[in-house]
Structures are given as structure tokens and as C-alpha cells.
Amino acid sequence: MSHILVFDSGIGGTSVLSHLRYRFQNSTFSYVMDNAFLPYGLQPQELIKLRIKGLIVWQEQYLSNVDMIVIACNTASTYALEEARKHTQIPIIGVVPAIKPAAYSSQTKHIALLATPATSNNTYTQKLIHDFAGGCKVEILHSTELVRIAEHFYWHSTLDQAALCEELKQLHIPYSVDRLVLGCTHFPLIADNIKECLPDHIELVDSGKAIANRAVSLLGKQEINIEKAPLKEVKFYATAPVLDSKEEVALISFS
Ligand code: DGL
């Protein structure tokens, strides 16, 4: 039975966690959110590297037997994955924008990446586009408002659809785009609502399922449908208090 640590700036990583829980039904999950520094998309790279180092030191001290760390945050992964691997022997999976499958499946060869400002503008993402979307035109878009909307939706179960559509409208996604890469783990949480604002021919692409596949190949096993047992609880940790919490969240600090 494995123990998997899933990390994000906020609640976005739960979009990856749900795929992982499905594939590892007997595993223990710890979910850590660094909401004291949310949104990561507006933070400088140096700070994010420090936070990731802090996370790794913290988990070594306070969690036991972590078998795998999933940095379920495109911003932290594109900024600090290499840094993270310097500080631990535990296997780490990062989540990066699904440029490759989007470019591969696009009929019009015109795709868009929607991520945080930090992910959209960094060199890791540019390299992904260069390496995997050679034959495509790629629109690079960003939104912090969508992160805020997704957080609000998770904690309060309400969403202002008009405000969401307005935010997407001002991104001016060209009509010939047929794949929209959700390059922030917060966005799949509101994928149905995002779809409602867009023309039908635009397919949304995210990395959640591919990350779960990668985790299975890395841990060399999966625990799917074992005795159809109810899923184990996830232990939630946060670096800032969460108000109106629907989960039990332990307050932690690392630096
Ligand atoms: N969920 C994160 C990502 O995938 C970042 C959101 C934020 O904190 O800006 O990039």
C-alpha cells in the first residue's frame, strides 16, 4: 500500500488527485496546499523554488513513508521540478501543460494554451511548445481570475457563469482553435462551465489522466477496484487557514 503526496498552491491539484485515487484505491493520500502564497501564477520563480524546497523538507519531517510526490501544479512544475528533485530521493511527478496530445489531435493545427501568467511566460513552457507543437500555431493565454473562480467553486459550490464567460471572452480565442489546453490544475475543476462559454468545436485537454498513468508506471502497480472498498480519506494540509472548509484541513508551515 503506497502513500502519495499531492501538492498544489491551492485546491487545483484535486483535479489530479481524483484520477490518482481512482487508480490507487488502497493508497493513503496527503494533499498539501500552499495557499499562503496563492496564486502561484503571480509569484516569482525564486520564491516558488524556495516553497518547493520547504515542502520537501517538511514532508520528510512530518509525514511518514511517502512513496511518491506529485506536484499537481503546472506553475510549480514548470518553475521548480528540477529544484525539487535535488532535495529528495522520493520519485517526483510534475504536471505540465498537455501541449503534446493537444497538438497531436488538433485537426486545424491551431491550439491554445490557457495557464497562469507564470506558466504561460516561462522558458519550460516555451520549450514544450517548441518540442511538441512544431506543426501548430499556438495561442498563449493566461488568467488568474479563473484560478479565483475555481477556488471559490470548490469551497462554496457556487460559480458566476457570466463572469467566467466574460473572462474567457476577453481572451479572444480565435475560431480556428480546436484544442484548448487547460495548463493549470485549477481549470479542470470548472471544465464543464468553461465549455459552456466556448464554441462546441473546441475540445479541452488536460494532464490529469496521463499523470495517473505515469504514477502507475512509476510505482509499478495500481490498486483499482480492489474489493470495491470505499476510497480512503485524504488528509488535507494548508499553509493558511481555510475558511468555511468542507474538508478537515490541518494548518502547517514550512519555509
Ligand atoms: N494550480 C496551479 C497550476 O496548475 C496554480 C494556480 C495558482 O496558484 O496560480 O498552475
TrEMBL record:
DNA repair keyword on record: no
Any coiled-coil regions, as ranges: none
Binding-site list for substrate: 8-9, 40-41, 74-75, 185-186
Biological process according to GO: cell wall organization; peptidoglycan biosynthetic process; regulation of cell shape
EC number annotated for this UniProt entry: 5.1.1.3
InterPro entries, alphabetized: Asp/Glu/hydantoin_racemase, Asp/Glu_race, Asp/Glu_racemase_AS_1, Asp/Glu_racemase_AS_2, Glu_race
Stated role: Provides the (R)-glutamate required for cell wall biosynthesis.
Family assignment from sequence similarity: Belongs to the aspartate/glutamate racemases family.
Protein name according to UniProt: Glutamate racemase
Organism expressing this protein natively: Pseudoalteromonas peptidolytica F12-50-A1
